[in-house]
């Protein structure tokens, strides 16, 4: 049972680490824009699309078409940061608890 719990902790830790380094991208108005990763955010492409975009352009129906790619990237990076750090920390905690339980159970078994 301890190995199963330790294995789940390792998986959670790895998911957190991979999520931190995996690239993030956003899409709006048929465009996909890269945002970098949580560890190394790169908002230059998002800012370039915001500057070059047709902000506040009237469209049929009187609506304004204004996708803020920089803000979308910020939100997606923050979401990714929240769940990856939580997953990694939980995984590390589970691994530490499994190791500590293994050490204490070995000590208790050797004193008998």
Automatic annotation (TrEMBL):
Keyword Transmembrane: yes
Name listed for the protein in its UniProt record: Transmembrane protein
Keyword hit for Transmembrane helix: yes
Membrane spanning stretches: 82-103
Keyword vocabulary terms for this entry: Membrane, Transmembrane, Transmembrane helix
Top-level taxon: Bacteria
